[in-house]
Amino acid sequence: MVRRFLGTLLLAVLGAAAAHAQENVPILSGGVGVLGASDGGAPSAQPVIAPVLTIPIGSKWLIESRADIRGFIAPEDGTTGPVQGSLSTTLEYLQVDYNATSWLTVTAGRFLTPFGIFNERIGAIWINKFESAPLIYPIGTARGYLDGIMTRGTIVSTPGYSINYIAYASTLSTVSNLESQRSAGSRVGVFFPKARLEIGTSYQKLLQGNRTNSQGVDVSWEPDRVPLDFKAEWAHSPSGQGYWFQTAYRLSQFSGPDSFVGRFEPVFRMQQFLRGQAISGDELPAHGAQEADFGLNYYLPHSVRLHAAYGRQFTPTRNTNLWEFGFTYRFLFPMWPGGSK
Amino acid sequence: MNGTRKIEIALICVLTAFSYAAARANAQSASGADAQKKSAAAKAEGSSKPDESAEGEKRFQANCGRCHVAPEDLNPRVVKAVVRQMRVRALLTAEDERLIVKFLAP
């Protein structure tokens, strides 16, 4: 009798677990692409795989991770000579998230530095409208990743506006592939849903070395009636300051987003960097620079995107032509088999 | 076959017929109740689900759609995991998460 009861209980628990698992299917997503470029006549190609692993646990926990596995293929001396290749693997984030309340998520582990909007939101290869990052990207983000703890959420949410916040502290790490700086920082944003406008401000204090402060302001605007995407950032640190702004206009108003013309997306980006103190290892351009980029994306079915761009960079030492051409594919799969429901 | 045996067979047949009739009546009653429940649920959904789905679409466009388009051919099994991740990344509230799931996997 006891065995029968335990057997029935075990079956019930397994059934409940299976039903629960159906609701929390881990997923493997990410992007694959080949990013070709020519920087002042120096050609290169970067085949990239950026897998993202997402494991929800229960109703409040989430484990997520993204890696960047990237090859770099270029002529030996830049423009001529035999072609050489190298491979790099980067763990961009591996974090545990706990949704404590509706307005508070606690994150621990390795995470993307939440300074401005580029690194966290639009830096992924399948989202970024250009292959290259803005010139001021290293301000406040350094390598782009930190090991530590972070709190985040939306503290006020009304139909007219919402206020979101991020606060974090990170530790020094010299472990290979898990390098991190000791720092603390925050970002606060105000989002107006009706206007689809967000304005944010970021701050970071480096708690090691020269203990620099970095500040930034970001704007994101996507009007409701027009398929326009406008994003901009300004950032400042002792190493220098600068801005970038970018507009993308999907031609979906011409015969719909799935028409031949509607799949095109012209993009324009303007940016400038003004050099401050020469601080070694800040990963910023050695001199001030201005750059204008014109791009064209074409969105094929099944999340494939073709990209081409031309840019012109002006620096005190030389002016260069920058070309980009490549494709990305966005994938997303459940991690174990099952039906479509 | 003696009389007692005949009575036993007749009793079994009557019981079987009664059981069959009772089971059939119960099934009809249950299906009727299910139909009523479904009808009631459909009426209830008719008044709230489209609103929630539309609100979810609005919140998807306002939050997720600011950086990327909706993934194509999104399997309903993965929606909860995707939106859970987006809740962290895009600073969504629990209500945003619930409504966006309603929109992506109605």
Spans of chain A with pLDDT under 50 lasting ≥5 residues?
8-19
Helicity of chain A, in percent? under 10%
How many domains of chain A? 1
Q: What's the story with the biggest beta sheet of chain B?
A: none
Please outline the helices and strands.
The complex is a heterodimer of chains A (about 350) and B (about 110).
Chain A: H1 2-23, E1 27-39, E2 42-57, E3 61-75, E4 83-101, E5 104-112, H2 118-122, E6 145-157, E7 162-170, E8 183-192, E9 197-206, E10 213-221, E11 228-237, E12 240-249, E13 264-275, E14 289-300, E15 304-314, E16 319-334
Antiparallel strand pairs in A: 1-2, 1-16, 2-3, 3-4, 4-5, 5-6, 6-7, 7-8, 8-9, 9-10, 10-11, 11-12, 12-13, 13-14, 14-15, 15-16
Chain B: H1 3-63, H2 79-89, H3 94-104
Please describe what this structure looks like:
- The complex is a heterodimer of chains A (341) and B (106).
- Chain A is mainly beta.
- Chain A has one domain (24-334): Porin.
- Chain A has helices at residues 2-23, 118-122, and strands at residues 27-39, 42-57, 61-75, 83-101, 104-112, 145-157, 162-170, 183-192, 197-206, 213-221, 228-237, 240-249, 264-275, 289-300, 304-314, 319-334.
- The radius of gyration of chain A is 23 Å and the shape is globular.
- Chain A starts with a helix and ends in a 7-residue tail after the last strand.
- In chain A, 33% of the residues are buried.
- Mean pLDDT of chain A is 90; it is low at 8-19.
- By secondary structure, chain B is an all-alpha fold.
- Chain B has one domain (3-104).
- Chain B contains three helices and no strands.
- Chain B starts with a helix and ends with a helix.
- Classes of the chains: A mainly beta (341), B mainly alpha (106).
